[in-house]
């Protein structure tokens, strides 16, 4: 899949192609969430765009895509979603770094990236859940366990978040890897060339 | 007709005339002060102010949709905390094997008030501010105009993409894909649904890059705005009032914490 790249993953100079990738990624996040809810799946599937853009164009683009997705949710549907932009940004950075260093090529690497992304989500979302929702996540299964554990405290809330987010992120990473494999080479090379070329 | 997911509507109201910066300052103040001072009253007070402002701007009805989104989680939080919160408790009533606990219920009410306060003051900002004005404010404060473009374009691109989803769903169903049934069946339906969306949005990306480049997107020349936002004459006064209220609250909290306050103010 993504070959290991040279140079630093943190250059902030963004080509037009990278910048334009962000709305596409955000749209994919939105549509993923829409289809997951339409099919009544027990997963969010709302970070496919973030992970894809992170694999294509690096951690900064991934983080921006994730953050802006939640900012837009917050401004158009649900204000509290805005703070969870930090979680999506974190996932974008983690996946972007793993892809930059060529670790998202084979199944073990993909699984590891999914686990790391899930862990990032737990670390960032759990404090947010505690501040705003008293530890709940709004997901039936996770909250049931949270309630059984006494519905308070960091550990119970973290377990709630783990049940919700770990499977979700692993599935998202495998979907991302699958889609990346079938993207046309001309598109992928747009983000890998040192000099931008639109031919 | 330009379709947008923004909830903004031009109502020529008092709030429409205030700059995005002032309204954002209000959001910060309305969230921070009740949290700093504590107790139920500051939350209710700010909610009342926000609701009053929304009624004046004739946009309160739109807040209903936003509350519905968070409403479900809020109800689950109240139920979970009231019936399942661990630790010592005072019994309120019983529902079969479940015990309603006073401490849990009060805790959930605190969460409810905080969340509702955040939602209403956010609405004051979101329902009365045009995305392009938000973008102008961002750029004035140093954000890259290219990022500003990306931000504004999202409000149109997202409805374009989500509009296609029903077409794609019908197309795939007519090819024999099942979208109802067991969990396995539904899981299998996800990839055939999302792949066309992903592919077409990436195809768009390359064309959009070229279109923007041709229109001078990467040019280093200073960018100007087609419609400059001009705030009303009350804008700076309101901002000053908000800052004063905020500083007073901080002083109040510090004095209270150090025990300097006279008895009647505590």
Question: Which helices and strands, and how do they pair?
Answer:
The complex is a heterodimer of chains A (199) and B (266).
Chain A lengths: L15 H23 L9 H10 L1 H18 L8 H16 L6 H27 L6 H9 L5 H28 L3 H6 L9
Chain B lengths: L13 H4 L2 H18 L3 H16 L3 H25 L6 E5 L2 E4 H25 L4 H10 L4 H30 L8 H32 L20 H23 L9
Antiparallel strand pairs in B: 1-2
Helix pairs in contact in B: 2-3, 2-5, 2-9, 3-5, 4-5, 6-7, 7-8
Jot down its keywords.
heterodimer; A: 199 residues; mainly alpha; Arp2/3 complex 21 kDa subunit ARPC3; 69% helix; B: 266 residues; two-stranded antiparallel ribbon; 9 helices
N-to-C SSE series of chain B? HHHHEEHHHHH
Low-confidence stretches of chain A: none
Report strand % of chain A. under 5%
Strand content of chain B: under 5%
CATH architecture of chain A: Orthogonal Bundle
- Label the structural class of chain B: mainly alpha
Main beta sheet of chain B, described?
2 strands, antiparallel
Oligomer: heterodimer
> Major sheet of chain B: order of its strands?
1-2
Give me the CATH fold name of chain A.
Arp2/3 complex 21 kDa subunit ARPC3
User: How do the helices and strands follow one another from N- to C-terminus of chain A?
Assistant: HHHHHHHH
Write down the overall mean pLDDT of chain B: 84
Overall shape of chain A: it is globular
């Amino acid at each position: 899949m993504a070959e290991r790249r040279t140079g630093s993953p943190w250059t902030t100079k963004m080509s037009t192609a990278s910048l334009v990738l962000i709305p596409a990624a955000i749209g994919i996040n939105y549509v993923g969430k829409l289809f997951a809810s339409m099919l009544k799946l027990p997963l969010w599937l709302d970070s496919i765009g973030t992970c894809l853009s992170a694999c294509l164009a690096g951690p900064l683009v991934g983080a921006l895509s994730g953050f802006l997705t939640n900012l837009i949710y917050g401004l158009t549907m649900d204000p509290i979603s805005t703070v969870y932009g930090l979680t999506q940004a974190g996932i974008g950075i983690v996946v972007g770094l793993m892809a930059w260093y060529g670790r998202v090529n084979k199944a073990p690497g993909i699984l590891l990236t999914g686990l790391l992304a899930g862990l990032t989500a737990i670390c960032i979302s759990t404090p947010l859940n505690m501040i705003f929702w008293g530890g709940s996540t709004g997901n039936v299964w996770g909250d049931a366990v949270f309630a059984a554990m006494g519905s308070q405290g960091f550990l119970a809330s973290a377990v709630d978040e783990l049940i919700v987010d770990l499977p979700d992120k692993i599935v998202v990473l495998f979907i991302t890897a699958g889609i990346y494999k079938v993207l046309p080479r001309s598109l992928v090379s747009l983000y890998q060339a040192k000099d931008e070329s639109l031919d | 007709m330009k379709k947008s997911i923004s909830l903004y509507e031009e109502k020529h109201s008092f709030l429409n005339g205030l700059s995005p910066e002032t309204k954002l300052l209000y959001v910060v103040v309305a969230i921070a002060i009740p949290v700093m001072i504590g107790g139920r009253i500051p939350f209710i007070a700010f909610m009342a102010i926000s609701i009053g402002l929304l009624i004046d701007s004739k946009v309160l009805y739109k807040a209903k949709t936003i509350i519905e989104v968070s409403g479900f989680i809020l109800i689950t939080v109240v139920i979970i905390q009231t019936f399942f919160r661990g630790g010592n408790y005072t019994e309120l009533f019983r529902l079969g094997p479940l015990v309603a606990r006073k401490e849990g219920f009060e805790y959930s009410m605190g969460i409810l008030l905080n969340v509702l306060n955040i939602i209403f003051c956010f609405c004051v900002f979101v329902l009365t501010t045009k995305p392009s004005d938000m973008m102008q404010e961002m750029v004035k404060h140093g954000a890259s105009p290219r990022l500003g473009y990306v931000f504004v374009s999202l409000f149109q691109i997202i409805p374009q993409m989500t509009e296609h989803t029903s077409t794609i769903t019908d197309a795939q169903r007519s090819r024999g894909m099942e979208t109802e049934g067991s969990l396995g069946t539904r899981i299998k339906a996800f990839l055939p649904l999302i792949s066309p969306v992903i592919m077409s949005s990436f195809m768009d990306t390359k064309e959009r890059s070229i279109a923007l480049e041709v229109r001078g997107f990467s040019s280093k020349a200073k960018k100007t705005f087609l419609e400059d936002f001009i705030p009303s004459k009350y804008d700076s006064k309101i901002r000053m009032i908000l800052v004063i209220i905020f500083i007073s609250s901080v002083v109040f909290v510090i004095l209270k914490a150090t025990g300097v306050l006279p008895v009647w103010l505590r």
